[in-house]
Structure formats: C-alpha cells, structure tokens
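Dear colleagues,

As part of the handover before I leave the project, I'm documenting each prediction I ran so the next person doesn't have to rerun anything. This entry is a single chain, and its sequence is reproduced below.
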Amino acid sequence: MPMPQFFQLLTKGVIFFSALGNYFRDDPCECTFFPESRYASDSDSDLLKRAEAIQNTIAGGVGLTNSANIVEINLAAFRRLGRGPRIKTLMNWERKAFGTSVVCSCWYLGPQESAAMWRIYGGETGIAIESTPKRLDEAMKTFEKPLLRVFELCPEVAPVRYNREVDDYYSTRPWLFKSGAFSHEKEIRVFAEVTTLLKPGVEIRFDVKKLVKRVLLTPIAEDWEIDSLKACVEKLISASGFQFEDGVCVSSIRNSDFPSDPTIKIVSRQRALKSISHILFRR
C-alpha cells in the first residue's frame, strides 16, 4: 500500500474503500460476469422493475442533473427492446450501477508474500499490512457507519474467483469474479453497498489494533532507505499509540527464494477464509 494510506490508517483509524467503478479502467472485464440464471425467471414486468431501480441508482450515484428526464428517456427505449436485448442492456446498466453503489478494499491472500504484488502496489517506499481473516472479522465488529448510509450492518469479506464457478452467494455479487489474467493477485475483497456515492470512495473506520498483526517494509528499496523507512514507521506507530503483535519487519522476499505460486483451487468462501494464514492489504 502507498505510504499516505498507511498514515491515514494510523492517524484516522480508517481504510479507504474505493468505488468499484474505479477499477473498470484497469480491468475491462471487472464486474461483467452475470450468470444466465440471474434473469431466467424474470417476467417482462420484472425486467422493467429491475431497469427502473437500476436507472435510479445510476442517476443518483453519478449526480446527474435532470435525472428524472434522463431516466424516463432510457426506460422508454428499454420498453421497445425484445427480451434478449433487454437482458443485455440490463447487464450493462447493472455494471454501471455497481460501479457507484459498491465500495471495496482489496487484499492479497496467501501463505507467502508475492514479489510481483510488491512491485505493482508497493514500489520502493510502500509497505504492507499483515492480518488474518480472524483479525479482520474482529476489527469489523467495531465497524462504524460513515456519513453515507451503508446497506450492510458491516462490510463483507470474500475471496475473488478467477473462473465462472457460481453458487448462491457469488451469483448475486458479480464484483467477486475476475479474469484469470489477474489470478496472480490472489485477491480477497472487503466490500459494502452504499445508497449514494458522489466521491471516488468512502473512508470506513476499523479497530486498528485488532486489524494489524505486523507491518512489512518493501523489499525493493536500498539498505539505507529501508533503515530510514523502518525508523520513521516505528516512530509514527509509537506516536499514534499503537503496538502491533509482530512489530515492523522487512519483507522476507529480500533474503529468500520462493517457489512458483501453486495452482489456484476453487473452494467454498468459508473454507477459503479459514485456510488463509495471512492477508496483506493491497489498495
């Protein structure tokens, strides 16, 4: 994670949850998988009701002026479509709606660190927060609602799937599917749905002491940079009143060779979360 986000966590006790739509540019396939069964049992009137709800969400989420007129124009065009084009249009509208109504925090999960993830998201001055699913769950029990009203009592946690294996839980959450091209990220998402989002995201408060097991420093920097970075981070943590279980450490990648990533296996959400030894905050 970039250093400013770490400062934000220590000084304000919050994690920034980005609007899902912010990820659409990096991954054109983000939130595009909708199971065929999603609309199979919907009558024409049901599809229209979905369309009305989605259009109102989109209009509110992006702050459109004259939104009522725009919504009615779009719905009038929707009514003229046949069933197949209606469903395709609904999928596109739903994706756009999720872009402004779902916020999430992305983590890397696995038994070991990833050099690729450090280079992509950490760089020469980045750090990683190590936690566990249990710690994350405990930290969320003290969840405080932001000013924007959140539908869920607490954000949810689930591993991202990199194929199209669907169950009841994943079938209603298309933002938990990603292209296999991103499977190296081994992503776990903490997400919540909000009613209105006019900014790039929202800050959500967590119990920092329960959340953080240890802080890892980038393996990419020079020795003198790491020494200075470690001293500064330790002073900031102490000044903020925190003392993490395993303190501040330099990434083990700096002195170790790791085997290739194992084949990713699809397991249930509950089993996957229970089997993770640690998770690293990514963005």
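Confidence is low (pLDDT under 50) at residues 147-153, 258-267. The chain has two domains: 3-19+103-281, 37-100.

All the best with the project,
I.
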